[in-house]
Specification:
Layout (H helix, E strand, L loop, with lengths): L2 H10 L2 H27 L8 H42 L12 H11 L24 E9 L3 H10 L7 H8 L3 E6 L24 H7 L3 E3 L9 H14 L3 E3 L1 E2 L2 H4 L3 E5 L2 E9 L15 E2 L6 H13 L2 E7 L10 H13 L3 E5 L7 E4 L2 E4 L4 E3 L6 E9 L5 E11 L2 E4 L4 H9 L4 E3 L4 E4 L4
Parallel strand pairs: 1-2, 1-13, 2-3, 3-4, 7-9, 9-10, 10-12
Antiparallel strand pairs: 1-14, 5-8, 6-7, 11-12, 14-15, 15-16, 15-18, 17-18
Helix pairs in contact: 1-3, 2-3
Length: 447
């Protein structure tokens, strides 16, 4: 029974009143027994026989037993009531022993609801401060240059897995990036015929898209001069293969709307729009149209500048990955510089170039970095010294660039231990940009 119910019952029937009623009952029973005995022995009734006397004694004994039982019950009930009162007193702050008739669970519930909080533990709602959210981390994007898979790469991968392509250090740089982008300079397909009169044509079995997955690739640009080496069917196989591998594709599509659309990603609260385009193409038929699959070209930059401006109005950062320049030339053409400045005027925040198969220098225009060429990364021709570009965006959106120097050693991409001469050379061929000893690119120096 709950404590409150016991208290109410105790007030309605105090134990002193119950015991008093019991004593009155005992006295009444004694008087009744006395009168019966007097009646049995009265002369007016002609005396009493032995049989009647014994009967009277039996009746008296029965009444006595009843009275003793009633007295015992009265005393027991009174003891329980007193124990209940002691427990109620304890709940009110009086130090008494807890009553065994009330379970510990009921007592705990009553104490939790009846005892007020002390002044030390009770707090006003205004004193409870909300937890401050943790600051967002930096966003790290990695960019690699030209990639294709010759047969000896594929054989090494079949035998030794991804560790036969790149060592653990370079794999960590790629895989640990929030997003990793590169220039895919071949189609994934087993269909089609090589383009006539083209000196170099590349193609790879679609099953080897898993190399991209093992490297940690998130986005590729197909806007280059090898994407349609085996025709439109092979190009469409490439689009399908990348989609099935959950790798985004920029710079090409089933029509011009898809080819010119950005790949959009949100990382740590910041939004990024990636656009791909090419100014190197073997044939006009390679360009995407409203009804034809193909590439997004930037010989005329009007549409690309429009797409940049649209993305700039919607997203935090706009990055353009462009195929341009002259092969084996370390110095960008003047048209590259003009195009890059136009992209930046339209709203681009970073320009990354490829195609020359060698590294070119860097430049800043209105505070925005231009990376003219990342050279070969994984390619059939000898890679030599190359770099992985890391673009780090702070939570406030500030951009810093760092180069991870690497080369192929025994067919495995490995980080260069002493890149000082490489970084000095890149500083020398840059325009108002410098590369520090640890690969940090900053605005400064001479044009």
């Amino acid at each position: 029974m709950p404590v409150s119910a016991l208290a109410a019952e105790s007030r309605a029937h105090p134990p002193e009143a119950s015991c008093l009623q019991s004593r009155h009952g005992i006295m009444s029973a004694e008087r009744e027994l006395y009168h019966r005995a007097c009646f049995l022995t009265s002369k007016d009734n002609g005396g009493v026989s032995m049989k009647s006397l014994l009967k009277g004694i039996g009746i008296g004994l029965g009444i006595g037993i009843i009275l003793l039982t009633a007295l015992y019950l009265c005393l027991t009930f009174s003891g329980n009531r007193l124990s209940s009162r002691r427990n109620i007193s304890e709940n009110a702050g009086i130090q008494t022993e807890p009553a065994e008739s009330i379970s510990s669970q009921e007592t705990t519930q009553e104490e939790n609801t009846s005892e007020p909080l002390s002044a030390e533990t009770e707090k006003e709602p205004s004193e409870v401060l909300p937890e401050e959210p943790l600051p967002e981390p930096d966003v790290t994007l990695s960019f690699a240059g030209d990639v294709m898979f010759p047969d000896h790469y594929l054989s090494a991968y079949d035998t030794g897995g991804i560790q036969a392509i790149a060592d653990s250090g370079m794999l960590s740089h790629m895989q640990d990036s929030d997003l990793f982008l590169l220039n895919e300079e071949f189609p994934f397909s087993l269909r089609g015929e090589p383009m006539p009169d083209k000196q170099f044509t590349f193609r790879t079995d679609p099953k080897y898209v898993r190399i991209f997955q093992d490297l940690g690739v998130d986005i590729v640009t197909v806007a280059n001069n090898h994407a349609l080496d085996f025709g439109q069917d092979a190009f469409c196989d490439t689009l399908d293969t990348l989609q099935q591998a959950d790798i985004a594709c920029i710079g090409g599509g089933y029509d011009i709307a898809q080819a010119s659309a950005p790949a959009v990603r949100t990382v740590h609260g910041q939004t990024f729009a990636f656009l791909g385009a090419t100014r190197v193409s073997p044939a006009y038929e390679w360009y995407a149209t409203d009804s034809q699959p193909g590439l997004f070209q930037t010989y005329d930059p009007t549409l690309l500048n429009q797409r940049i401006a649209e993305a700039d109005a919607r997203y935090d950062h706009v990055i353009v990955f462009v195929h341009w320049g002259i092969e084996r030339n370390e110095t960008p053409e003047e048209y590259q510089r003009v195009l890059a400045q136009g992209y930046i005027d339209a709203g681009a925040d970073l320009i990354v170039g490829c195609h020359p198969h060698v590294l070119q220098g860097f430049e800043y225009y209105q505070g925005v970095p231009i990376v003219y060429s990342l050279g070969n990364y994984l390619f059939d021709s000898r890679t030599g010294e190359t770099v992985l570009l890391k673009a780090v965006f702070s939570p406030e959106g500030e951009l810093s660039l760092q180069l991870i120097p690497c080369r192929r050693e025994s067919e495995v991409l490995t980080q260069i231990e002493d890149p000082s001469s490489l970084f000095q050379h890149l500083s020398d061929i840059s325009f108002g940009a410098e590369v520090s000893e640890d690969g940090i690119i900053t605005e400064g120096g001479t044009d």
